[in-house]
Amino acid sequence: MLEGSGFEVVNLGINVDSDKFVAAVKEQQPQILCLSALLTTTMNYMKDVIEAVKNSGLRDTLKIMVGGAPLNAAFAAQVGADAYTADANECVQVAKSLLGK
Fold this sequence. Notes:
Strand content: 5-15%
Helix content: 40-55%
Strand order of the largest sheet: 1-2-3
Structural class: alpha/beta
Low-confidence stretches: none
Mean pLDDT: 94
Shape: globular
Order of helices and strands: HEHHEHEH
Radius of gyration: 13 Å
Largest sheet: 3 strands, parallel
Number of strands: 3
C-alpha cells in the first residue's frame, strides 16, 4: 500500500534484530520506520528496536509507526512510537499526515 501510494519502501524482512534496523536507518536515512508484529510474542521487541534507534542518536531523524493484529494505540505510546495504525490503508493516511503530505 505504501509503495502504491508513492512511498519508497525498504523491506528488511522478518525476525530482524535491532542492530540491523539501526544500520538500515543510518544507511537509508528514512523519514519513517515502520514496525509490524503479527504475534504477541514479538510485540515487546518493538520497544527494543525503538530504544536501539534512540541510543544510536537517530530517533529524532525519523518518525516511527507500529502496527499489526495484536497492537493498539496504547501499546504504541508505551513503546515510544509516533503512531499506530490498524491496517495498511490507515498506514498510508497516517504516514502522509506525519510527513505533512
